[in-house]
Amino acid sequence: MKTIQKLLAFVGLLSLCALFIYALQDAPTDENFETKLINDYNVYALQVPDNLDFAGEPLPLKNPDILERMDRELLVNTYWQSNGLLMFKRAKKYFPIIEPILAKYEVPDDFKYLAVIESGLTNAVSPAGARGVWQIMPTTGRENGLEVNKNVDERYNLEKATEVACKYLLNSKSKLGSWTLAAAAYNAGNAGVSRRLKEQGVTGYYDLLLGEETGRYLFRIVALKEILSNPTKYGFNFRDKDLYNNIPTYKVEVDTVVTDFSKFAQNFGINYKILKLHNPWLREPHLNNKSRKSYLIDIPEKGYYD
Q: Which CATH class is domain 53-242?
């Protein structure tokens, strides 16, 4: 009997030790981060939240078609893990630039997710000629005060491009009557959305029969909003130090010709590549500036590229 009691006590002690070790391994520390990364991969069906909205306008999720389309985008964007993690990383860097401009123009904050699906928060180039984070076409850019040519293309200037996007969205909201339709018009154009509404005799986006891209557009935006707002709910695990940070800069005013941006950059202790990273709207290694226009060039603060 004593032998059995001793054996049971020993087994109990081993169990406690195992639980203690497991608890240590489960703690969110850097030491076990890679182990959890490798061993925690599972694929689950997702439950579409009962209440989803875009810019305060609810999705009619009781409609089975709407529910299935929302489910599709949540699944696609949750399990495209590499892209998802990149969106979290870039959002930390660029949302702080975009958010105050949306607020300034009284455009709902949800529209920052439109930029995510338009470009992945990169200076993307489309086959149709759209450029930058907001994928602005040349005509739209020029009509809203941007300089667009081979030497300078301000569609690549995130602050200015965000302002143009705001103006376009406000105009669309005024014409179409809802933020949801304004978002759809960003993809298909005001005239295109208006024509389809009239042809089909409906008044809302979710009642429209649309092509593949525009038909998925709002659902993709809402899916990215839901996932980026709830990372752990959708299985994304990261630390703040894993995300990208925006490098602080100061602005230098230039109202003359610049013949060589490589030499210009050296005057500020950086190279041409670094200058271009912070000023992608400067498209050539020189600035023509025949009109002596005043430009503001971003220069990174010292110490970040040493």
A: mainly alpha
Give the C-alpha distances (Å, rounded to integers) separating 218 from 111, 113, 214, 288. Answer: 11, 10, 8, 41
- For residue 193, how many other CB atoms are within 10 A of its CB? 24
- What are 103-156's pLDDT values in tens digits? 999 999 999 999 999 999 999 999 999 999 999 999 999 999 999 999 999 999
Categorize the per-residue pLDDT at 44 as very low, low, confident or very high, splitting at 50, 70 and 90.
confident
The whole-chain average pLDDT of the chain stands at 90
Distance (Å, whole) CA 304 – CA 21: 40
State the Cα–Cα distance between residues 142 and 129, nearest whole angstrom: 13
- The domain limits of the chain are 53-242, 249-300
* β-bridge mates for residue 257, sequence order: none
- State how beta strands 53-54 and 295-300 pair: unpaired
Length of the chain: 306
Please list the alpha-helical segments (H only) found in 121-157: 138-143
Q: Check if the beta carbon of residue 300 is closer than 8 Å to that of residue 248.
A: yes
Q: Per DSSP, what are the bridge partners of residue 249?
A: 300
- Sort 276 into a burial class: Cβ within 10 Å, 0-12 / 13-18 / 19+: middle
Angle in degrees, 0-180, between the axes of helices 158-176 and 112-119, rounded to the nearest 10: 110
Model pLDDT, residue 306: 82
- Residue 217 has what pLDDT? 96
User: DSSP label at 233?
Assistant: G
**How does pLDDT run across 169-212, given as a tens digit for each residue?**
999 999 999 999 999 999 999 999 999 999 999 999 999 999 99
